[in-house]
Amino acid sequence: MTQISAPRIGIAGITGRLGTLCAEEAGDALVGGLSRTADPQRNITTDPAALAKSCDVVIDVSHASTVPVHAAAFAQAGCAWVLGTTGLDQGAQDAVNAAAQHIPVLQAANFSPALTLFLELARQLGAGLPDYDAEILEVHHRQKLDAPSGTALAIGRAVAEGRGVRFEDVARTDQNGRRPDGAIGFASLRGGQIIGEHDLVLMAADEQITLSHRALDRRVFARGALLAARWLAGRSAGLYTMADALKR
Ligand SMILES: NC(=O)C1=CN([C@@H]2O[C@H](COP(=O)(O)OP(=O)(O)OC[C@H]3O[C@@H](n4cnc5c(N)ncnc54)[C@H](OP(=O)(O)O)[C@@H]3O)[C@@H](O)[C@H]2O)C=CC1
Ligand SMILES: O=C(O)C1=N[C@H](C(=O)O)C[C@H](O)C1
Questions:
Q1: Residue 247 appears among annotated catalytic residues
Q2: Which atom of ligand 1 is closest in space to residue 112's alpha carbon?
Q3: Structural domains of the chain, with CATH
Q4: What is the pTM of this model?
Q5: Where does (S)-2,3,4,5-tetrahydrodipicolinate bind (predicted)?
């Protein structure tokens, strides 16, 4: 691994809510971005291969449908990839895993430092309270496209991992019928301009515990994405997490 001291950064989804903030946080390190509409004056292209050639690392906060194409282009160019886009289907996730054989990829549904620690606490709660009913509630702005949020799914995976069960066997998004033992349930609310709220609730007959996170400023994600990009550029190929980047 050759750590790059001042990596050149590109942003996929640069015109979006989070992409705009990432561009601001990148400052002079920003090389350009990806959009469905090119803007040569800002070095915004529609071609992922062209962006990747001019960058050491791309922060990707765009749309799940772009993931397979980005995976192939960035792997081909040898460009590091910080992937924050959520709503990936299994095909897109397979493309991410394949790219990580060739380039360093840091995938995080949530770039917040506190939320990253939340995942570790969720794992511990899952392990320590294996028989409690686990429910995850997430609330987001009215424009959000995917549900449950990527973060909610990551919290659910952490609880399942703590319990030593396959997430796919216990995840429950449909609340109809009697609650199966061991299920990990999800509920989503959409409205207003809520930046991102996540609660993990573990319930027994005689007590309950709630772990809560509230994003108060979307910039927390942008700052985390930049930290991840600077940490990732120049690393060996592999699939990394936000927890890796935050290790002291
Ligand atoms: N990891 C994290 O911490 C966080 C992750 N996210 C995730 O980042 C992603 C972007 O979020 P956000 O910035 O709020 O979203 P926006 O919709 O504001 O931005 C996404 C951008 O992606 C581009 N895009 C490319 N292809 C498509 C497509 N088919 N449909 C829609 N947009 C497309 C659009 O740019 P153009 O029109 O110029 O092509 C758009 O502006 C989401 O998946 C979200 O869940 C969000 C917050 C935090
Ligand atoms: O779309 C958003 O806004 C957010 N998406 C991420 C997710 O799906 O978990 C992270 C954050 O909650 C904001």
A1: no
A2: 3
A3: 9-111+219-246 (3.40.50.720), 113-214 (3.30.360.10)
A4: 0.98
A5: 141, 150-151
